[in-house]
Design brief:
Number of strands: 9
Structural class: mainly beta
Number of helices: 1
Strand content: over 45%
Helix content: under 10%
Mean pLDDT: 82
Oligomer: single chain
Strand order of the largest sheet: 2-1-7-4-3
């Protein structure tokens, strides 16, 4: 009995993981809206549009906090995924640039996998959001952050597109 309790407690503690820096993905759903238009010949044309339920996050990187040599950033954005291709966010990775005098460039790349297939009709896309920590070197006064989206897949050519870029002066209070 005692061993069972100990194993149960250890199993429960192994599931306690901090989700502070994990990638959060939410679905943007839409509802179909049928529209009827009449042309000059009195023929009715029916077509369907979709209106989104959730707000699409604008791609951005914001400074959440700055303490000593640690910088906490929030990365967010959205991708479209509808029709005959499925787009899924795999991960957000960092390609650290070189330190030039008092300036450093941080290049965050959102890896989006294009999967052949058909997305559900009500799914219009996905929002993604992640908080990341970065330890600064001494003497850094300016941080240039860039957010790229990289589409990959077995049948698609890789392409990186810049979706956000900003330079922060970290010597000022944030």
């Amino acid at each position: 009995m005692r061993n069972t309790i100990i194993v149960t407690i250890l199993w429960m503690l192994s599931g306690c993981v901090s989700h502070e820096n994990s990638l959060h993905i939410t679905v943007i759903e839409g509802t179909p809206k049928r529209i009827v238009k009449e042309n000059e010949m009195h023929q009715k044309q029916h077509y369907t549009t979709y209106s989104d339920h959730a707000e699409r996050l604008i791609p951005a990187i914001k400074i959440l906090s700055k303490e000593h040599n640690s910088l906490k950033l929030s990365i967010r954005g959205n991708i479209s995924s509808a029709g005959l291709s499925i787009n899924k966010v795999r991960k957000v990775r960092l390609e650290e640039g070189q330190l030039d005098e008092n300036r450093i460039t941080l290049k965050y790349i959102v890896e989006i996998e294009k999967i052949p297939g058909k997305e559900s009709a009500n799914i219009r896309g996905y929002n993604y959001e992640q908080a990341v920590n970065y330890n600064l070197s001494k003497g850094v006064q300016y941080v240039k952050v860039q957010l790229y989206e990289n589409y990959t897949g077995s049948h698609f050519a890789e392409r990186q597109t810049l979706v956000f870029e900003e330079t922060f002066n970290i010597t000022e209070s944030t």
